[in-house]
Amino acid sequence: MGRSDAPRRAQPESELTAPLFPELEVAAFAKVRRYKRIEHPIWTEHRARFIRQYLSYFVQVTKHGAYIDGFAGPQSFEHLDAWSAALVLRSEPKWLRHFFFCEITRKGIQALEELVASEKNARDKKGKKLSRNIQVFRGDFNLKVSQILASGKISQKEATFCLLDQRTFECHWATVKELASFKKSGNKVELLYFLGVGWLHRAFSGIRRSEKMLNWWGQPDWRELAKMRAHDIAELVRKRFYEELGYTHVAAYPIFDRESGNRIMYYMIHASDHAEAPALMVRAHQKAVRALPRDIQSSLFDSRSEG
Asked: Which of these, 233, 85, 234, 240, lies nearest to 163 by C-alpha position?
């Protein structure tokens, strides 16, 4: 079915305040419910595994798909075992058919090219050589996104997943809008957008060019963000994904860092039109935190519904 051109409806306040970590069973997503924020950590080093686990569930539903990583180089060359691009490319089941990795740094490009070369002869569990299209794009993703979407490799019907693991202000709002509007029918490109709130206010103080912030935020009121708490900024971004970009399901997941006293370092904004996506994300979270101490696990999954 085609999508309506009518303006996005205003979301009721009861929905706008929901949900930071919606703890729901699959069937419960028929209606919107409100949940309190999670107060315990998913360690930073589990972030890439969290993404991989979700994607594993995602492809078991769709049986196919395309994956875009806009900022695909390693975040840390000292911790390549937590490199999202590598974990996703090697994840099971290997049903994703098209991969698009973009990176701007020379070192990151070299790492990606070596990764792709290592997967040249990858095979499935039955030993059959995989037929996959893996491309590495050199340059600024904000400038390359149009080329990727226009490549003809991503059909309107193909399930498409995009990771935007930006370094603070790298991802332009116009880029997010272009991804969200690419599909003219069916489900939009599914987004995982990382918002680095752990250092956001410090980064605001170092801004010298307003153009940079205008590109990132997409609105001239970006200075108001410096007056807001990290949680409120994440909630505002979540609302924008829902109201401006028109996604059916949007949630913000806090990610903590044990090296910083369990301080919130990121919020992962997950935006999807797929009916099963929210429940799959909760399952992926449960899988990601199983290695945590028992007392933390139990408190993570206590009933926290507010009604």
From this structure: 85
Residue 128 in any domain: the answer is yes
Within-domain flag for 51:
yes
The string of pLDDT tens digits covering residues 47-99 is 787 888 888 888 888 888 999 999 999 988 887 877 889 989 988 888 888 99
Give mean pLDDT, residues 156-168.
91
Dihedral sign for Cα 48, 53, 59, 64, please: positive
DSSP state of 95: -
What is the rounded distance in angstroms from the CA atom of residue 297 to the CA atom of residue 285? 11
CATH code at position 25: 3.40.50.150
Residues 132 and 152: their CA atoms lie apart, in Å, by 14
Q: Give which of 246, 242, 268 is closest to 255, Cα–Cα.
A: 268
CA angle 121-102-124, nearest 5°? 25
Average pLDDT of the chain, as a whole number? 79
Question: Residue 245, Cα to own-chain centre: how many angstroms?
Answer: 15
pLDDT tens-digit series, residues 114-158: 999 998 888 877 888 888 899 999 999 999 999 999 999 899 989
The amino acid that residue 261 corresponds to is G
Total tally of structural domains belonging to the chain: 1
The Cα 44–Cα 268 span in angstroms is 12
d(CA 119, CA 207) in angstroms, rounded, equals: 40
Half-sphere exposure at residue 285, Cβ-oriented, CA atoms within 13 angstroms: 26
Range of the domain at 181: 13-199+231-300
Tell whether 218 is covered by a domain.
Answer: no
Is residue 285 included in any domain, yes or no? yes
